[in-house]
């Protein structure tokens, strides 16, 4: 279940990330950086529209139907983007639809992991599951820019179409819904967790703030390296490598949270670290330091480390009857912020440059610190 959940989410992430890595190609075709960033934000905007709905469907029908069915729809949407080719308007519509359909894997694959693993191993399991996002970005980073530069948009979209189609079949055959308590025995877990405490609201708010540094680097890390003189291919490889290192970091942070018996304690440390690494990136840009590659790898690893902690915390606090909707709400908040990163940071870079943008983004984790709850909450 864990392997299929990781693969399904990685495929969805590849689909959502690919447009951001098409920015250099689209910019070379005549689109402004802001316009290309807006097109790159279309999939995350689509996810915002459907995440909670997919979570509600998962709560009612189970994980297998949602993951497999969602991947079938995602395959069709990306195929539509392939047909659109270099037409920006049609690409935007297809990417929006791809985001709406790929959102199915987010809440449902998280529920599979939470449902099949006990609490004392859930941090590790969710850390492995959360590897799916940086792995998807890695796969996109090492294929999409190079293929787009060599052969255009259509060549870059072949892998997402094929991968989603193959995994739709694999998840149909292999996923088994985890057991859940009967409605009569659910007790407090069946109650609306948003009414009894502000815990979930605070985690959602923290995650919104912390996702901006993450998407700033995944969207504009390659562009930043190119402005420093890197080739597109070399920059893509480094972005991919940094995402892979971040994937391993998520596992280590998950194990750490299992060992200390807390999700919110490590989350607080990650927030402080995210602010620090974004400030260092700004310094590297201003001072033209030769350590850009190392700092970008470290910064990427740190800024993706919070996702598994927050995701696990939300699922545990929501309980088995509400985790689909709560995880959908969690991702909705994150992707609302993420969808603004493409055009927003693109415009900001035009105004204050990369150094100023990195420094402003560094302030967001600082704002998140007082919102992190002091004590964990769980239905286990």
Q: Which key terms come to mind for this protein?
A:
380 residues; mainly alpha; single chain
Overall average pLDDT: 85
Note the total helix count.
18
Amino- and carboxy-terminal Cα gap: 21 Å
Oligomer: single chain
The count of strands amounts to: 0
Poorly predicted ranges (pLDDT <50, ≥5 residues)? none
State which percent range the strand residues make up: under 5%
The radius of gyration over CA amounts to 19 Å
Largest beta sheet, briefly? Answer: none
Give the H and E element order.
Answer: HHHHHHHHHHHHHHHHHH
Q: How does the overall form come out from the CA principal axes? A: globular
Structural class: mainly alpha
User: Portion of residues in helices?
Assistant: over 70%
Tell me what you see in this structure.
This protein is an all-alpha fold and 380 residues long. Helices cover 83% and strands 0% of the residues. The longest helix has 46 residues, at 323-368.
């Amino acid at each position: 279940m864990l392997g299929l959940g990781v693969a399904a989410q990685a495929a969805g992430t590849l689909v959502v990330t690919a447009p951001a890595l098409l920015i250099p190609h689209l910019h070379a075709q005549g689109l402004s950086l802001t316009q290309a960033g807006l097109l790159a934000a279309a999939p995350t905007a689509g996810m915002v529209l459907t995440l909670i709905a997919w979570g509600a469907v998962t709560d009612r029908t189970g994980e297998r139907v949602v993951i497999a069915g969602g991947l079938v729809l995602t395959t069709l949407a990306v195929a539509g983007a392939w047909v659109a080719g270099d037409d920006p308007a049609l690409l935007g519509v297809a990417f929006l639809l791809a985001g709406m359909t790929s959102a199915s894997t987010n809440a449902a694959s998280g529920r599979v992991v939470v449902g099949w693993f006990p609490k004392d191993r859930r941090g590790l399991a969710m850390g492995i599951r959360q590897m799916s996002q940086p792995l998807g970005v890695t796969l996109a980073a090492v294929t999409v820019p190079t293929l787009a530069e060599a052969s255009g948009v259509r060549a870059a979209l072949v892998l997402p179409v094929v991968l989603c189609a193959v995994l739709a079949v694999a998840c149909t055959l292999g996923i088994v819904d985890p057991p859940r308590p009967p409605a009569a025995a659910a007790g407090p877990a069946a109650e609306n967790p948003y009414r009894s405490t502000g815990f979930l609201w605070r985690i959602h708010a923290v995650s919104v703030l912390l996702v901006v540094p993450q998407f700033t680097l995944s969207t504009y890390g390659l562009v930043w390296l190119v402005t420093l003189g890197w080739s597109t291919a070399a920059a893509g490889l480094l972005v991919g490598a940094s995402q892979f290192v971040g994937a391993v970091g998520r596992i280590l942070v998950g194990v750490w949270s299992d060992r200390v018996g807390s999700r919110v304690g490590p989350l607080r440390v990650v927030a402080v670290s995210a602010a620090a690494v974004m400030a260092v990136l700004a310094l590297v840009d201003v001072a033209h330091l030769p350590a850009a590659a190392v700092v970008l790898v470290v910064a990427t690893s740190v800024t993706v480390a919070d996702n598994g902690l927050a995701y696990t915390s939300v699922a545990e606090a929501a309980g088995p009857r509400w985790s689909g909707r709560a995880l959908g709400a969690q991702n909705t908040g994150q992707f609302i912020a993420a969808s603004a990163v493409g055009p927003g940071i693109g415009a900001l870079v035009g105004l204050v440059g990369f150094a100023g943008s990195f420094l402003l983004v560094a302030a967001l984790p600082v704002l998140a610190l007082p919102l992190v709850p002091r004590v964990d909450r769980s239905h286990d």
